[in-house]
Amino acid sequence: MSPPPAKRTRRFFIEDILREPYNELSPPQKTAQDYVKKLDNEVEQASKFQWVKTKSRFSITDVPADPEGLLAGIFQHCVDGGLDESRQRGVEPTHLGCTISSQLLSSDIWIPVRQITEDTINTILNRFNDVAQSKKQDGVTLWGEPFTVSVTTVNRNGLNVRRLKGGAPRKLAPVHHRISAKSLININNNNDGNNYCLFYAMMATLMHAIGGLTSLQFFYYLHSQKGMRGKLQQDTMEMMNVVNAPPGQQSYDAEIYAPRVIDWWNTQKFVDQFKFKAFIFGSSGQYKPLFKYGPEEYEVPIILYFDDGCNKMFFNDNCRQHHLTTNFCKRSKECKDCGKVYDVYDTTRGGREGHKCHEKWCENCQIFHDLKRGCYIKPLDGNEKKEASGWRLVTFDLETMQHEPADPDFPEQRKHQVNFITAKVACPECISSGEWKKSLCGKECQICGPNRVITFSQKPFRDTDVDKQIVTRHPLVDFVKWILYELPIKFETVAYSHFGGRFDMVLVFREIFMEGLNPTMIRKGNRLFEMTVTKRKNVNPQVSFRDSWNLVPGPLASMVPMFALDVQEKPFFPHLSNQPANYGRLIHPSKADYLADGMMPEKRKQFDRCYCKNDVDILMSGLVAFRSEFLELTKRKAGPDGKAERATFKNPHNGIDPVRDCITIASACMRHFRTNHLKPGHLALVPEKGYDSCGDNQSDLALAFMDWYAEEHGVRIQNAFSADGEKRVGNFRLDGWIEEQQKGLEIHGCVWHACPRCYPDEELEMPNGKTAGRIRERNKMRMDYIKSQFPDIEIFWECDIRSMLVRDKQMKEKFDEFTGEGGPINIRGCFMGGRTGALKLYHQAASNEEISYYDFTSLYPFINFVTTYPVGHPKLDVPCEEVDWRRPEDNPYPLAILKVFVIPPRQIDVPVLPVKVNDRLCFPLCMACCKKYPSGAVMDSYSCTHNDKQRGWISTCTSLELNAALEEGYRVTDLLRVLEYSKGDNKLFRPYISEFIAQKMHASGFDEEIRGNFQAEEQFIGECLEKFDIKIDRSKMIPNKGKRSLAKLGVNNLWGRFSLRNFGLSKTLITDDPGVLGNYLDNRKIEITALDMLTPEVILISYVEKKEWIKEHPCSNVVISLFTTSAARLHLLKSMQKVVRSPGCTLLYTDTDSLVYAHPKESNPLQTGPHLGQFTNELPKHEIAEFVSGGSKQYGLKLRKKDAPPDSNYEYILKVRGMTLNHDVMNNQGKGIVCSRDFRVLDFGHIEP
C-alpha cells in the first residue's frame, strides 16, 4: 500500500500577497497586487485598557490557483499586522480576537478574544467555512464587494486589579451615571492644587452625617467661606497625618486609605459613639459598590461616588437610600436544601407561596414546574401586541468620508466621518392613507412630526426635494438629537437602516453614548441586531434601531424588483469620491471609485448604463410593501361562528406587524406559525441539554478515561454501564470502582463540579443555578463521607485529563478509538447539514454526453410538507444490548432517535449514513480509514483491511436514515440508547407551507410553458390539489413580485428557527475600569467577542456565555430541524442512486439540494417538474462542456449557450465556498485558469492526464 502524496504547501501568505511576485503562473508573471486590493486600514488604541484594534478592508479582484491559500494569506497578513501594530504602540499582545465582516455574509465570522496559540490562523480559516452556508446574494459576491478583517489584541498582563485613586482632575468626556447631578456634591481639587479629593470626600461626608451643621453652614464648610474658611482643609490634613497618608502624592488608592480612615474613626476617634462603613460606587451607574469596608453592623454609611474620568469623589446619601428602597439586596435568596439561587419576586408571583425545590419558572408555560414534566412551545395570541399609543417608522442612511487620517503618526490609516444623513418618517396611519409618499410641508402629523424627509449635511444642496435641510458641521450629532428629542415624545420610534447593523448603527451608538445614554443591544459578533434607547418620561420616547437586512436579506437595490417598487433604484455610489474637496463641484468619478471591477457581470452591465437615486426612498418603500404583504397574509378574519378562520385558536386579529414586532424574518415566520398554526400542548420544548444528561449519565470523556485506565493498569472498572451499575457508597455512587483493589475513581467535570482552577470565583453561578462555592462545599461533604468508608479514592479533573491527552500521544490515540457506547444521546450533536462534495474532480463531456446541473425546487419546504415529525416528549430507553438488524423490519422503533453501533457494507454505490469526523460531514465505509486520513487522500490502489468492528462506528441518527441504511446493506450490532416518540404529525407544517406556496404560485402566474394552454393549466391546478392539497384559484394567477418574494422568504425561514440556540448573541458591558476587562478576559464562563472604544477612558465589552450556560429559548426544538435535514439528505440520496444506477451516467458533484452529473444525451435519469421537491435545470439555456472541482463547495463550470454558434466564446463559473467570480476575473484575468487541468484547490490529489 503506497502512502498518499504529500500535501502541497499553501502559496498565498503575507509575502505572496503583498510583496513577492506570484511565480506559479506564466506568462505573464503576476504580483500580489493583481489579486488583492487593500482599500484602507484603521487602527484604534485604548492605552488605558492595553488593547489595539486594526481594521483592514480588502477587495479581492482575481482568484489564483489556490483560492484557499489566498484567504489564509489575507488572514495571516491581518493577524501579523495586528500583532506588529500592537507592539509598535507599546502593547505586547497576549490575547487576540478576529472578526470578518461583509455585507454579503449572513453573519459575521468571529473568533473570541483568546490567548494566542499556534492554531489561531487555522481556527479563523475553519470558521470561514461558514461562508458556504450564507445565503446567495444577487449581483455581487465577496470577491468583489469590500470586506473587513478586524483584529483585536490585548495585553492581559498590563491590566492590573482596579485601583480607586483620587487625583487631579482631567478634562475628559463625561462618564455616565443615572444619579442626578443635583444630588451630588463636587469635591474640587483645583483651588488647592493637590490631589486630596479622596480624603476631602470622606471628611465632608463625615461632617454632613454627624457634624450637626445646617445646610448653609455645611455649604460654607465645603467651600471654605465665612467662619468656615480653611476648616475642611485643616480637618483633612489632620486625618491624613493620623492615617499616615504622605502629602503631595499624585494619587491615593482608596482600597488602601479608606480602610485606614474607617478603622481610625471606629476604633479611636468615635469609639462607642458611631460605627462607620465605607461604600464606593463606580462611574457607570451600577447599584453594586465597587468597594466596601467596615463592620457588618454600622450606623453611618460613608458613601462615595468615584468618577475615573475626572478623578472626583462625590458624597450622596440618597444613593444608598435608593439602593435600599429598591430591595436590591433582598431579591435573591439561596435555598438551604437544594442550593438553588432564586428570585424572591418570581417565586411569589401569581399567589405562589414561594420557592419549591426542583421547580423553576418556565417562560414558555408561564408557571413553575418540575423540569422532568417537560414543556411545550406556547401558541401566541394575535392580539397581544396592541398599538396603544401609536408608533412611527424611520428609515435613514449615512454617508461617510475617509479622507482624514485617524492618527497623525499613521497617515495611511483613515477614519469614517459622517457628512450626510437622510431620514424619512412614516406612521401606520400615514401608510394606510397613502400620505407617507407626500411631503409634510405646511401640515404636521401628530405621530410623524413636521417633516417627512429631513437631511443633515455639511453643505447645502439643490435639485432634490426634501422637507427640511439641516446644515451643520456635525450631521451625526444633530441627527441623534433629532431622533431622540425632536420627534413627538408620546410615540415609539422604530428606525431602520439597511445593513446598518455593521455600519450605520455602530456610528449612531457612539454618538448616543456621547449623549449620555447607555442603549441596550442585541449583538452577534460585529453585527448589531437591535439597539434600544429606553423611554424617559418627558425627555425622549423609546427609540429602537434595527437592520432591515435581517427582515429582507439582500442588497438594498434588490428591493426594487423584489417588491416592484415605483422607485428608481440606486445600485451604485462612488464611495472613494466622498470627501470635502468635492463639495459643490461637478465631478466625474472613475470606475475605480465605484469598485466596478468587483461587480458581477450583470451588475457591471447595469453600472455601465446608469447610477443614482435615493437609498432612503427605496428602504421606506420596501419596508412598507413588505409590511403590507405580511399583514395581509397573517391576519385572521372572523368566520360565521365568530371564530378566526384558518387558525388554531378562536380569536380573529389584524395580522402580525413584522416591522414593529420582529427583528428578523425568521422571528416573523415563527410568530406567524405560533399565532396561526400551532396547537397548544403539541410541540415539545426540547431541553438544550437534551433528555439524556442527568442522573446516572457519565460523559464520554469520563467513560473514555476509565476505558484507558483499565487497559493501562490491567484492571476491571465497574461504572454506570456495567452489569451492576455504579458502586454505591451509602446514598452516593462512585464513577468507577476497582473491586480487586478496593479503589474508587472519580472523574470530575470542571463545569459540573466547579473546578477551583477553572472557576475560582466562589460566587460564580454555575449552569445548575448553584454557586461554585456551594458546589465545592457539597462535593467535599460527599467525598469526605465516601473516603470515610473507602479511603483509597483517586480524583481526576477534566482539565487534568485534557492536559494528559496533549502530553501522551498513545493515550490520545486510545481516546480517539473509543466508541462511546455508554454515553448519553446528544441530540444537537447528530444535527447535521446537507450532503456536499465532489464525486469526481474533473470531467469533460464526450460528444454523445451531456453534463446537467439540477436543483430541487424548495427542498426544505417540500420536506416540511411531507415529513412526519415527532411531537410531544420522548421516552428514554437504555437497552445496551447486542442485536442483529439487517432490514428495516428489524427496527422496532418507527419514530425515534437511536444510538447504535453500525457496520457499513464493504461496497456500495452511494453510502447512506453520515458521521462527523473532525467536524467534517463524511459518509464512510470504514471509520478506521476515515480517521487515518482525516483530510482524505487519493490513492490508485488502496484496499481496506480493517475488520467489521474497526469499520463500524457509534451512530446517533433518526429512524428515517437508519431504516434507509438497513435497506442498503448496513447492519446494527448494538442498540445502546433510544429516544422513542409515541406520537407523530405528518401535517405539522402543511397549513403553514400551503399558505405560502399558494401565494407564491398565485403571485408567479402560470409557467411560460403552459400559459394560455387551458388543458395544461387545469392539469397543473389538479396536480397541486392532488399532491399538496393546495387549492389554486385561476382568477388569482396574476404575477405579483411583492407577494412572491414574501412567500419565498416565508417558506424557507421557519424550520431552522427551531434549532436556534441562545449562543452567539452577545451581551454588552460599558466600563471605565481596566480591571473589569481583565476579569472578563479571565472569566471562564464567557468569551469576549469584541472590544470597542467609546472614549479614551471608556470601552464597550461584548461577550457571549459559553455553551454550558446556554438555556433553551421559547421555541427551541432541535428535533424538528434534525428530522428536516435527515429527510432532506434521504431525498437527495434517492436521486443520487437514480443517477449512479443508470447506464452511462456519472455523478460528479452534490450539494445540499443539487446535483451535477453526466449522462447520455438521449437518456436523462432525472426529470424536471413545476412542483415542490421536483427538479429544475439551473442552466437551461447552456450546455456544460467541462466540470472541475477541488472538493466541497469548490467547483468550476465551462459552458456555452445552446443557441450560440460553435465558434463562440465559452462562459465560465467558478465557485469557492459559496462565492462566485466577479466581472474583473471573468473578463480580464486569464480565463484559462478556470476550467483547465491546472486548476488546483485541494491540499492533496492529482488529476490524471
From TrEMBL:
EC number: 2.7.7.7
GO BP term, pick one: DNA replication
GO cellular component terms, semicolon-separated: DNA polymerase complex
Domain of life: Eukaryota
InterPro entries cross-referenced by the UniProt entry: DNA-dir_DNA_pol_B_mt/vir (IPR004868), DNA/RNA_pol_sf (IPR043502), DNA_pol_palm_dom_sf (IPR023211), RNaseH-like_sf (IPR012337), RNaseH_sf (IPR036397)
Pfam family, one: DNA_pol_B_2
Isomerase as UniProt keyword: no
Signal peptide region: none
GO terms, molecular function: DNA binding; DNA-directed DNA polymerase activity; nucleotide binding
Record-annotated DNA-directed DNA polymerase family B mitochondria/virus domain positions: 826-1005
EC class of the enzyme, as a word: transferase
Transmembrane segments: 198-222
Keyword Transferase tagged: yes
Gene3D superfamilies: Palm domain of DNA polymerase, Ribonuclease H-like superfamily/Ribonuclease H, VSR Endonuclease
Catalytic activity: DNA(n) + a 2'-deoxyribonucleoside 5'-triphosphate = DNA(n+1) + diphosphate
Keywords: DNA replication, DNA-binding, DNA-directed DNA polymerase, Membrane, Nucleotidyltransferase, Transferase, Transmembrane, Transmembrane helix
Family in the record: Belongs to the DNA polymerase type-B family.
Record-given protein name: DNA-directed DNA polymerase
